[in-house]
Specification:
The structure holds three protein chains of three kinds.
Chain A: E1 3-4, H1 19-23, H2 28-56, H3 67-106, H4 114-136, H5 160-188, H6 201-232, H7 246-280, H8 287-300, H9 316-328, H10 330-344, H11 353-376, H12 378-384, H13 388-418, H14 424-451, H15 465-495, E2 529-530
Antiparallel strand pairs in A: 1-2
Chain B: H1 2-18, H2 25-29, H3 47-63, H4 89-122, H5 138-167, E1 174-181, E2 184-189, E3 194-198, E4 220-223, E5 227-234, E6 239-243, E7 248-252, E8 258-263, E9 268-273, E10 286-292, H6 294-304
Helix pairs in contact in B: 1-4, 4-5
Chain C: H1 3-37, E1 44-45, E2 57-66, E3 72-76, E4 80-84, E5 88-97, E6 103-112, E7 120-125, E8 131-133, E9 138-147, E10 162-171
Classes of the chains: A mainly alpha, B alpha+beta, C alpha+beta.
Chain lengths: 531, 314, 177
């Protein structure tokens, strides 16, 4: 694809400065930057908690989080899950990269609703404050990120869970508003000549994600509201004591929750497609197949929710249906994997840090994907449900899928966003530390799960100590990698060489690379024509 | 149906070749479960499966070359990498099916990995300065859509078979009720007016050879070679009654009764843990099932039936 | 705001509101779904008595649970009874208020195996209403039921020779009296 671009006038003087520039911001790049900084804070918070979990589990008899008869441990795992999902992966991938690059990639001057965009971001701040309060108020919210009643209703009488639920309400509202904004922008504001079938795959990823958010998050909002009224206002939606059914909550939660996992991975799919195409110096192989694979993953994602509930005692035909529907997801996912490899095939590959992360993503996502096929089988899932096998599976697709997508995107777009280059060797070292670290953490968890170790336990039978120890070593390594990453970013800002408008060469064909690095405050005020 | 049988027989051959981990693997195949009479099919332990079992061990040892423990685990062993030894027909099937899945999936990962390595070596910029412009190949795209579909169909048939096998409730000779409480299990034998609580044994009271966090004061005693119906519910929050060696895991839900079943083929003590987060002591409410001979079970019933016992029901 | 932005905004927000509305309706919808399909072992309420009796005998077992918050004793008066498919059976549970105070309970119910729910019909059941027991009062709760004779026509029910009928009494959160 080639674009004829007009870079418009630079208006650096006509925007607010100081605190107004940020707090009152309606600029997609500034808001994107704030999302990324916010996400970095969430990541720091969430990964510190994960380090605490691994330290607690490094040896049997762990006492680090044993406060309140291990309630502290339950609070930490709950907060870890919620932070990583709602305050790290989603803000960075959707809010950060989405805000920054969707308008740039489609040649739009900004998002469709700039003020709404501002609200979407600022809702997250009170949301995070409330989540933090849920950790410290009363006995804390130790319900797990799935907060199944009755543990989250009668099991947690004090206000901590209410804080957590209201926090999720705010995060959910933020997501819905953001989703509306993205869909409107992508549908209505593409540059002349850029049909949907010419839009970069990252834009497709964000579009499908936004639809998932729009349809799934209201279900979470409804379920949370019902849970809140059950807790505070005497209703009985989920309480058997009043004719409700706790399993209804699980159905509602996973009707949201399964699309939610695709919400976290689809933007990463988009990033990986851009990165691989760039560093293979080839257009994406099977572009239409790639785009519609994401669409079908999104659609099927809505009809597989009860595969999280194979042990609740469902009808066997329902189990068989959810098994079959879940297995089908492997087909579009397979298309994506093979298309990425085919994109590299015949290319002229170079291995800058974003490309390393993209290749790491492919192999690790395949591992997480095939264990997903294992778990899709209702019969086998009986033996693995709520064991460490599940923990291994979803960390392979998220901690190595979404996270690697984030790192690939960060290293890929850092020069564009900041105008500074990060030395390649520094990024390469970071990749190898992270790659070895996360595999050390999560690969042994497959063995633990197969051997029967349940999730969410603060201490374990001594037989499980070997693999747990390895996993904890991996966590230390990964955490060291995260600190090193912070240093790299600091180095990049401080001493990084000035980035040209396109540091990645002829493979980088999307519109953002036609702009200076960093791009001016206002871009594409006159839309470019795409041929 | 014909296709289903063909795939099934292939699966049997395949699993017989690779995965004959238990002494009598075909026994479970013969289970048209409703007609199963308790104890009618004892393990015959023919010679053939023993050899294929050796082959399996060799095979698995080749894969996991540093596994110190593979045989007969009723409880988790240090550095264990695979399932505990199955002792019920359902877990036999589950184990074989999972091993089949592992073989298929391992192959897929290896193929993708090999492709990646080939691409990285063959098409690096220093070897291939001019990138090709090919961005479509309809045939290729059809192939990599169709082959996964075929693999999934191949997986789906044994998967459904396992699901329906778990669902079929054979005629049960004993019913046990497991009630989840924060944070212990209460068991009832409704037919024998037995009811008792099963609490974790604190660490300082463990006898030598007992497993920390897995041992309970009152074990569930069951006879071997008997179909046992397990019904479960909860008195407070969600719990889940699970024994890995049985292939049983069923959530305990307040206000609802759930049912599943198992048929233990081998005497022994089997350990499980609560498998649904239920509050602060979720990790401290283990499940222990001791399978004994029918005669020993009858003796146990007699010893339990004394007037001091609280009758069931309340 | 541009006009086409406005219409997109309206369409998308209505989608979100529809999803929210469906979620709130799900509580009633889920109950209806369970009652219609027997999902989760939900029993049926008989509209009329069966007109034929099949030869197949099914053992109906009885299970009773009580939530710790309700100070009652509650148990079935018979462990099991055998009925033919289509035959009306009558069973009793015994309930006793162990506290000196008036308490109100409400029972949830289901059958296992869950797939039998669609065939298990109740003609009369104490579980349809909230139950009041004065301090120390004891009473017998009857339940009249039959198993739909169509059960013999369903091959997936061939393995079912025993159905467990279960009740759990809860302390009612808000008694209507």
């Amino acid at each position: 694809m080639s674009y004829a671009t007009t870079i418009d006038h630079v208006h650096n003087a006509d925007h607010p400065t100081g605190w107004r520039r940020w707090v009152l911001s309606t600029n997609h790049k500034d808001i994107g930057t704030m999302y990324i900084i916010f996400g970095a804070f969430g990541a720091l918070f969430g990964s510190t908690l994960s380090l605490l979990i691994r330290l607690q589990l490094a040896h049997p008899h762990g006492t680090l989080l044993s406060g309140g008869e291990f309630q502290i441990y339950n609070i930490v795992i709950t907060a870890h899950g919620l932070l990583m999902i709602f305050f790290f992966v989603m803000p960075v991938l959707i809010g950060g990269f989405g805000n920054w690059f969707v308008p740039l990639m489609i040649g739009a001057p900004d998002m469709a609703f700039p003020r709404l965009n501002n609200i979407s971001f600022w809702l997250l701040i009170p949301s995070l404050v409330l989540l933090t309060l849920s950790i410290v108020v009363g006995s804390g919210a130790g319900t797990g990120w799935t907060f199944y009643p009755p543990l989250s209703s009668i099991g947690h009488p004090d206000a901590a869970v209410d804080f957590m639920l209201v926090s999720l309400h705010l995060a959910g509202a933020s997501s819905i508003l953001g989703a509306i904004n993205f869909i409107t922008t992508i549908f209505n504001m593409r540059a002349p000549g850029m049909t949907m079938h010419k839009a970069p795959l990252f834009v497709w990823g964000i579009l499908v994600t936004a639809f998932l958010l729009l349809l799934a998050v209201p279900v979470l909002a409804g379920a949370i509201t019902m849970l809140l009224t059950d807790r505070g206002f005497g209703t009985s939606f989920f309480e058997p004591a009043g004719g409700g059914d706790p399993l209804l909550f699980q159905h509602l939660f996973w009707f949201f929750g399964h699309p939610e996992v695709y919400i976290m991975i689809l933007p990463a799919f988009g990033v990986i497609s851009q990165v691989i195409s760039t560093f293979a110096r080839k257009p994406v192989f099977g572009y239409l197949g790639m785009a519609y694979a994401m669409v079908s993953i999104g659609v099927i994602g809505f009809v597989v929710w009860a595969h999280h509930m194979f042990t609740v005692g469902m009808d066997v035909n329902a189990n068989a249906y959810f098994t079959a529907a879940t297995l089908i997801i492997a087909v579009p996912t397979g298309i994506k994997i093979f298309s990425w490899i085919a994109t590299m095939w015949g290319g002229s590959l170079t291995f800058e840090t974003p490309m390393l992360y993209a290749i790491g993503f492919i192999i690790l996502f395949v591992i997480g994907g095939v264990t997903g096929v294992t778990l899709a089988n209702g019969g086998v899932d009986i033996s693995l449900h709520d064991t460490y096998f599940v923990v291994a599976h979803f960390h392979y697709v998220l901690s190595m899928g979404a996270l690697f997508g984030i790192f690939a995107g960060f290293y890929y777009w850092f020069p564009k966003m900041t105008g500074k280059m990060i030395p390649e060797w520094m990024g390469n070292i970071h990749f190898w530390i992270t790659f070895v670290g996360v595999n050390l953490i999560f690969f042994p968890m497959h063995f633990l799960g197969l051997a029967g170790m349940p999730r969410r336990i603060p201490d374990y039978p001594d037989a499980y100590s070997g693999w747990n120890y390895i996993a904890s070593l991996g966590a230390l390594l990964t955490f060291a990698g995260a600190i090193y990453f912070a240093l790299i970013v600091y180095y990049g800002f401080k001493w990084g060489k000035k980035a040209p408008s396109n540091p990645w060469g002829p493979g980088a064909t999307t519109l953002e690379w036609t702009l200076p690095s960093p791009p001016p405050f206002h871009t594409f005020e006159t839309q470019p024509h795409v041929s | 149906m014909r296709g289903l049988q063909t795939i099934d027989s292939f699966l049997q051959d395949f699993s017989g070749l690779l995965c004959a981990h238990n002494a009598c693997p075909r026994e479970s195949e013969e289970l048209p479960v409703p007609r199963l009479k308790a104890g009618a099919k004892d393990c015959k332990d023919p010679k053939g499966p023993k050899q294929s079992r050796k082959r399996l061990h060799l095979f698995l040892t080749l894969i996991f070359s540093f596994v110190p423990y593979l045989a007969h685990a009723d409880h988790p062993k240090p550095w264990q990498m695979y399932y505990q030894d199955p002792v019920t027909p359902v877990m036999d099937h589950l184990y074989d099916f999972h091993t089949l899945l592992l073989c298929i999936e391992g192959t897929i990962v290896l193929i993708v990995g090999a492709l990646l390595i080939y691409v990285i070596i063959r098409f690096r910029a220093s070897k291939n300065a001019a990138p090709s412009k090919v961005a479509h190949n309809t045939l290729l795209e059809v192939i990599w859509t169709a082959i996964p579909v075929l693999i999934l169909v191949f997986i789906a048939f044994p998967s459904f078979k396992l699901l329906y096998m778990m669902d079929v409730t054979p005629k049960a000779d004993l019913t046990i009720k497991a009630i989840g409480n924060q944070w212990y299990w209460t068991y009832e034998y409704p037919d024998h007016n037995i009811r008792f609580d099963s609490n974790i044994v604190p660490e300082d009271q463990l006898k030598s050879g007992q497993f920390r966090l897995l041992e309970v004061d009152n074990r569930v005693i069951v006879p071997t070679h008997t179909n046992i119906r397990i019904i479960t519910t909860s008195s407070d929050v969600l719990h889940s009654w699970a024994v890995p060696a049985f292939g049983v895991k069923r959530d305990s839900v307040p206000g609802r009764l759930n049912e599943t079943w198992f048929h233990v083929k081998k005497e022994g003590v089997y350990y499980g843990q609560c498998s649904e987060l239920c509050g602060v002591k979720h990790g401290f409410m283990p499940i222990v099932v001791e399978a004994v001979t029918k005669a020993q079970f009858e003796q146990w019933l007699v010893s339990k039936k004394n007037p001091a016992q609280t009758p069931s029901g309340g | 705001m541009k006009e086409y932005h406005r219409s997109t905004l309206i369409i998308l927000s209505s989608l979100a509101f529809v999803m929210l509305a469906i979620t709130f309706a799900s509580s009633a919808l889920f109950r209806m779904f369970c009652e219609k399909t027997g999902h989760g072992g939900t029993t049926q309420v008989a509209k009329r008595l069966p007109i034929r009796v099949e030869q197949r005998v099914i053992t109906v077992r009885f299970n009773a649970d009580i939530q710790p918050q309700l100070p009652w004793d509650f148990k079935p008066l018979q462990k099991e009874i055998k009925v033919k498919a289509g035959e009306v059976g009558l069973a009793f549970y015994h309930g006793k208020n162990l506290s000196p105070h008036h308490t109100v309970g409400m029972a949830t119910y289901n059958v296992t195996p869950h797939k039998a729910g669609i065939y298990f019909n109740k003609v009369e059941c104490f579980c349809f209403l909230e139950q009041h027991l004065e301090g120390e009062q004891a009473t017998d709760f009857p339940v009249q039921f039959f198993i739909d004779p169509d059960i013999v026509k369903d091959p997936t029910m061939d393995d079912v020779d025993t159905i467990t009928l279960s009740y759990t009494f809860f302390r009612l959160k808000k008694p209507s009296l």
